[in-house]
Amino acid sequence: MSTTSAWRQQTPRDWEHYVNKQVTVTAHGQQQHRGWLHTVDPVTASVVLVQLGEAAGGCSVSVVMGHAVEQVEVVGEADEETAMRLSSLFRSEAPELRGSVEDVKRRREELRGWLQQNRVPVEEVGEDLLVAGVLTVRPPYAEQDCFSSNQMVLARIQGLLARMPTPAGQPFDQPAADGQQSCDQPAADGQQSCDQPAADGQQSCDQPSVGF
Amino acid sequence: MKTPVCVVRLPRGPDPHGRGFDPTSPRYLALCPSSLSTSGEADPVALRAEQRARAMMRERFLRCLISMANKKIQFLMYERVTVAAVFGASDIDVLNFQVSDLQTPIGVQTEALIRCQDVISYSFDM
């Protein structure tokens, strides 16, 4: 194999400077690829470039393998909108979560209010929300944006997030108000649904219903 | 007397305690650069920053790989060879891609392994 090129010898801090910039990559054989640099794989030094289409539309992605990169040249910087689009590009989010910067800010306020309503301590740390001192929620504040080293807390908070009501007043996943939807219990009376905590405090889906 | 059954000794599997990515494994050393790019910082603050950068970029790259699954990819390889295939999976060191329906000049391969060392670049639409 050829000797390690200058590109591959750089450190992750150097590569980080290219993220969210518009670059021209010269690959083997003088091929040129231009696009927004989404990331550089620290293992192989491969460069992921994105050509964005219309807003919220499709885009095209090209990846140049690290061993074939000869030169990377910065030609532009991303504005806040583009940077946000790039960072949320490969995350599978619900359409209502993908939004402008204002939407994301509004969602953060909604989430903070919801957590406080549920007596969960939450404070703002920069762009993130620090929940109960052990869990961090990063933009765009969806379930998959929760980070914690405590599995119990993570599961609880993610469940709480799933039950957060939208501005219209209806939770995302509850179809009807009559409570007949239950996860895996064929209860005839439908009184023990997984989404609604029962009056006697039994919140587990695994417990069979009384009449079984 | 029952016939003794011969015992087949299988090669050792991967280390169950490791995370799968082992820079000291012979396979990685043979096929990948001999050392991970690192500034070798002794300063813990700088080391933490480098780890954070490495983790952020690797996570983005892995999400990119996940989003490629079952999509049609165009591979540009050496000697001006261009092939198209449906992406299946990558191995952890990004040394091989498992693909289906590989369109080659001599026919369509139902399942194939593409060596990443042979690929210059690849592209797909989201």
Mind sketching the topology for me?
The complex is a heterodimer of chains A (212) and B (126).
Chain A lengths: L11 H5 L4 E7 L3 E10 L6 E6 L6 E6 L4 E9 L2 H8 L13 H17 L4 E4 L2 E4 L3 E3 L8 E3 L2 H12 L50
Antiparallel strand pairs in A: 1-2, 1-5, 2-3, 3-4, 6-7, 7-8, 8-9
Chain B lengths: L25 H6 L12 H25 L3 E6 L3 E10 L5 E9 L2 E9 L3 E7 L1
Antiparallel strand pairs in B: 1-2, 1-5, 2-3, 3-4
Describe the structure in your own words.
- The complex is a heterodimer of chains A (212) and B (126).
- Chain A has 212 residues and is α+β, with helices and mostly antiparallel strands.
- Chain A contains 4 helices and 9 strands.
- Chain A has helices at 12-16, 80-87, 101-117, 151-162; strands spanning 21-27, 31-40, 47-52, 59-64, 69-77, 122-125, 128-131, 135-137, 146-148.
- In chain A, a hairpin with a 2-residue loop joins strand 6 and strand 7 (128-131).
- Chain B is an alpha+beta fold.
- Chain B contains 2 helices and 5 strands; from the N terminus they run ααβββββ.
- Chain B has a 5-stranded antiparallel beta sheet.
- In chain B, 18% of the residues are buried.
- The interface between A and B is large, with 41 and 35 residues.
- Strand 4 (59-64) of chain A pairs antiparallel with strand 5 of chain B, so a sheet runs across the interface.
Q: Tell me, briefly, the overall form of chain A.
A: elongated
Biggest β-sheet of chain A: count, sense, barrel?
Answer: 5 strands, antiparallel
Please state the overall shape of chain B, judged from the principal axes of the Cα atoms.
flat
Count of beta strands of chain A:
9
- Element pattern of chain B in H and E: HHEEEEE
Give the helix/strand class of chain A. Answer: alpha+beta
Largest sheet of chain B: 5 strands, antiparallel
Low-confidence stretches of chain B: none
Q: Structural class per helix/strand content of chain B?
A: alpha+beta
Rounded to an integer in angstroms, the radius of gyration calculated over CA atoms of chain A is: 23 Å
Count all strands of chain B and give the number: 5
